[in-house]
């Protein structure tokens, strides 16, 4: 049952990863449809292609931070932050595809969520080092606080 | 020897990852050579660069799904599907670089394989939840079925 | 304490990943600032955007190889090589943004480090297979040699 113990610690992260893969496929299909409709590179194609590229550029960073946070500290808040990130990304994609006249959102998005996950990693490693050199384990407390703090991500 | 137990569960996935890295390096070298040959951005450079980008866009998605499938269910079918994906990608790259007059393949490729790996992840998580809440473990059966089903990927 | 045992084996890799994320954010901010300053796509924007893309193209490959090397063999040399890779990347980014007149560096960078990490993976898997089929474990020796060899990466 060793394998099941592994799954126990990562299954929420896997679920979020799968949802992000579905979203990637959705984005890619949008690009492909736009590409097939128009033989010439229109403004619409440029826009959808650029949006997709911005999302894809940030994707490995997001995955890496989410998995590190999930492995180092606790998976539930990390997966929750991941879900919110995916929602922000969806909104970003939709916003980018809007009217050209309106100002497009910038290159970056979801900075707050990435920062939260980043912080989780640091806290997790710090806690591990504390445990190793001083023998004091605050993981329980930290996990509770992180769980509560992740709710703050819902603020607009 | 704890580390060796970790290696036991992932070594096939690592092998596929390494092969994919070699392939990435091969693609990148093609781009670099084309880039050096021609100071101006020719059509050939555009094409090889675009192909490489399409491949790179899909790469994190592929890696994430393959590793999740390998960790959640069983590594041999996941690694096998990964190998086939790499072969499809090679063919895609070669096809893209062909004559401009012939229709280039679309933006997406290897959808079937990604879908298969995706399904493996879902089955793995579902099996874990079944085990957790009902105590019934079908992992043995599922792994056998998955191993057999992965042969279907060989169909053209 | 199972989770802490996981953290023990990966915490250096997580630290390097976090540093790489900070670097990614730094690159992305450079792109965003350039993008906002100039409404039209200037040569400077083209250059910073292209550099960022080259770095991002290689990023998943780097992450995958570093983590595989760290998991298969030993994390300290892998993390050390990762740090050096990040330094090379920083230099690449700065060099690319220099004068247009001077020759820009090529599409690829950090080949030596990727190759070193690649070799670590192969050695790790080879050692595992030796252990499995012949029962002889050279991991201790190999880890010592790898640690020493990683110092060679400091050579310019």
Automatic annotation (TrEMBL), chains A, B, C:
Spans through the membrane: 6-27, 62-88, 113-131
Residues annotated as signal peptide: none
Entry-linked InterPro entries: 5_LipOase_AP (IPR001446), MAPEG (IPR050997), MAPEG-like_dom_sf (IPR023352), Membr-assoc_MAPEG (IPR001129)
Alphabetical list of Pfam families matching this protein: MAPEG (PF01124)
Membrane topology, record value: Multi-pass membrane protein
UniProt GO molecular function: enzyme activator activity; glutathione peroxidase activity; glutathione transferase activity; leukotriene-C4 synthase activity
Biological processes annotated in GO: leukotriene biosynthetic process
Record flagged with keyword Nucleus: yes
First-listed, main subcellular location of the protein, grouped into a coarse class: endoplasmic reticulum
This protein's UniProt keywords: Endoplasmic reticulum, Leukotriene biosynthesis, Membrane, Nucleus, Transmembrane, Transmembrane helix
Subcellular localization: Endoplasmic reticulum membrane; Nucleus membrane
Subunit structure as annotated in this protein's UniProt entry: Homotrimer. Interacts with LTC4S and ALOX5.
Protein name from the UniProt record: Arachidonate 5-lipoxygenase-activating protein
């Amino acid at each position: 049952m060793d394998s099941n113990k592994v799954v126990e610690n990562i299954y929420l992260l896997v679920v979020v990863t799968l949802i992000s893969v579905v979203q990637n496929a959705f984005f890619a299909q949008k690009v492909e449809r736009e590409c097939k409709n128009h033989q010439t590179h229109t403004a619409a194609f440029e826009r959808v292609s650029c949006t997709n590229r911005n999302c894809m550029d940030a994707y490995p960073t997001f995955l890496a931070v989410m998995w590190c946070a999930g492995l180092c500290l606790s998976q539930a808040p990390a997966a929750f932050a991941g879900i919110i990130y995916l929602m922000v990304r969806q909104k970003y994609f939709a916003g980018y595809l809007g009217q050209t006249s309106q100002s497009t959102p910038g290159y970056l998005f979801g900075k707050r969520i990435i920062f939260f996950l980043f912080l989780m990693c640091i806290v997790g490693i710090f806690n591990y080092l504390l445990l190793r050199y001083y023998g004091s384990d605050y993981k329980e407390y930290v996990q509770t606080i992180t769980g509560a703090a992740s709710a703050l991500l819902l603020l607009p």
